[in-house]
Amino acid sequence: xxxxxxxxxxxxxxxxxxxxxxxxxxxxxxxxxxxxxxxxxxxxxxxxxxxxxxxxxxxxxxxxxxxxxxxxxxxxxxxxxxxxxxxxxxxxxxxxxxxxxxxxxxxxxxxxxxxxxxxxxxxxxxxxxxxxxxxxxxxxxxxxxxxxxxxxxxxxxxxxxxxxxxxx
Length: 168
Prior knowledge:
The protein is mainly beta and 168 residues long. The protein has two domains: 3-85, Beta Barrel (Elongation Factor Tu (Ef-tu), domain 3); 97-158, PRC-barrel domain (SH3 type barrels, Roll). Helix content is 8%, strand content 47%. The protein has three helices and twelve strands, in the order ββαβββαβαββββββ. The protein is elongated and about 60 Å long. The chain starts with 5 loop residues before the first strand and ends in a 10-residue tail after the last strand.
């Protein structure tokens, strides 16, 4: 598993039970990535996933070599990653956040707005925070604004709504 294909899917939040299970707060909408993983990388260390079960919105993972609550506690606070091929399939015009972070954003008339630095969940639609020559610009991830997303070239073309770009 190369580091290029690793995707953060959660954070280790506490030891659970007496067998050394690790309670993981998922950063995913479904648990499919956990179910499909045979190896989880916790922090920088890969662990073979012996079992995973789901309890009250969290994943409880039993990792090879982590067989006591004390060993599990050593991993608390670490990010949990898996190979990108373990992620669920996407629908057309759906993107994983990791594909959008760092993407260059350009307006349909050729102005560079900068790079996506963060994504904000609003409920109705996600909002991209783009940092660049116009400062921080917030771009709603809606069809009227986002015209093209090229994950291969890491480039997005947008038609910003009136007033979105300062002095623009």
